[in-house]
Inverse folding.
């Protein structure tokens, strides 16, 4: 497969226009660190944003940053850190889970709506994305949004592009709102809770007025090793007050230790990047979203049907599940659980052959699929941009 690396936005537009004229199917990517996610590519050439790099605007006082889509995520993170700021949504690094190499790009964060544990407080990547530039399937350059958030009526192209996985356009530049980095991060650690009790504790913490920025539960086979994690961030005096109040609020769940420093950073990184499941690299990995209080029931249904390991993020609303890489990889049990209890399941890690024969994303009702096909056709009438990456035939 040939690789096309445009020098700039206009070059990208020319490449896409030519591909449309020739019927060339394009696999869109940044640096390819997440190439093994989604349905396998069935395209003629790769269109890479690798050369579209550089921060084009950064105004710390305005809490806004713009960068070309191929800019390494690490460059954006380091630039913000230099001014005591950060991306609010704590984007996950998929490389440990996928075993991939290279540098993730800021464009991929927007295209795949990548978020981490702080999503429960700060929202997803799309909630901080306020501007995009992209090339649609006609080879036209489209600009939407800008440097400030506005309430608009009509089609919000910025939010539509977030999570579209390159099926609607080739991102060339993205603009995010950012936040100051907290002065201190501290974590309450409760040991030995079962899944139901842990989610009850997390729900109580999230329902409190104490601004929890991380809520996860890491089960263990003997339960005594189970860890329930509640993260607080902010000014040190405020963190101290909220820690004490949360300890009182949660005392019925047992004694709570305080975890800080590098140990706390490491455990939240393992939650963010799902490396809790990394030890079994031969297993399939699913990412399941559901109502937080239904997480334990969903897991119980899956575990009754297939051998599995799991952990909870987002207060129980995000469940990472590892299943044997055989048969249907647990798809039948997981899909049945999401149908019964509500939710969406995505197959994150599996061999190409399995990602070709199984639904990678949650199957949608026909009315929703018809809408999806219509949106795809309006942005990419020839169907040349990442065809079939999310759903077969789209």
């Amino acid at each position: 497969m040939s690789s096309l690396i445009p020098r700039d936005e206009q070059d990208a537009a020319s490449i896409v226009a030519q591909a449309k004229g020739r019927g060339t199917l394009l696999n869109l990517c940044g640096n390819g660190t997440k190439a093994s996610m989604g349905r396998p590519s069935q395209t003629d050439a790769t269109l890479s944003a690798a050369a579209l790099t550089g921060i084009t605007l950064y105004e710390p006082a305005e809490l806004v940053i713009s960068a070309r889509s191929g800019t390494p995520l690490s460059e954006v993170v380091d630039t913000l850190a230099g001014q005591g700021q950060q991306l609010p949504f704590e984007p996950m690094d998929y490389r440990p889970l996928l075993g991939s190499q290279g540098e993730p790009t800021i464009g991929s964060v927007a295209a795949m709506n990548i978020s981490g544990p702080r999503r429960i407080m700060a929202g997803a990547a799309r909630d901080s994305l306020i501007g995009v530039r992209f090339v649609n399937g006609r080879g036209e350059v489209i600009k939407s949004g800008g440097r400030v958030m506005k309430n608009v009526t009509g089609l919000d192209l910025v939010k539509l592009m977030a999570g579209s996985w390159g099926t609607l356009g080739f991102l060339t530049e993205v603009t995010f709102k950012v936040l100051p980095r907290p002065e201190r991060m501290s974590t309450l650690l409760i040991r030995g809770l079962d899944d139901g009790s842990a989610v009850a504790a997390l729900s109580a913490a999230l329902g409190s007025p104490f601004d929890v920025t991380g809520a996860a539960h890491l089960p263990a086979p003997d339960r005594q090793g189970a860890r329930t994690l509640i993260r607080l961030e902010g000014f040190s005096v405020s963190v101290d007050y909220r820690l004490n109040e949360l300890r009182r609020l949660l005392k019925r769940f047992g004694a709570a230790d305080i975890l800080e420093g590098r140990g706390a950073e490491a455990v939240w990184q393992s939650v963010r990047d799902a490396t809790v499941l990394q030890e079994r690299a031969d297993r399939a990995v699913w990412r399941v979203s559901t109502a937080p209080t239904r997480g334990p029931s969903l897991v119980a249904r899956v575990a009754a049907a297939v051998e599995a390991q799991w952990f909870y993020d987002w207060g129980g609303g995000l469940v990472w599940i590892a299943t044997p890489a055989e048969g249907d990889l647990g798809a039948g049990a997981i899909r049945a659980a999401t149908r019964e209890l509500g939710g969406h399941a995505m197959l994150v890690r599996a061999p190409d052959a399995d990602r070709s024969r199984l639904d990678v994303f949650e199957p949608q009702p026909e009315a929703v699929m018809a809408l999806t096909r219509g949106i795809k056709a309006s942005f990419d009438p020839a169907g040349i941009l990442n065809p079939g990456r999310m759903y077969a035939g789209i």
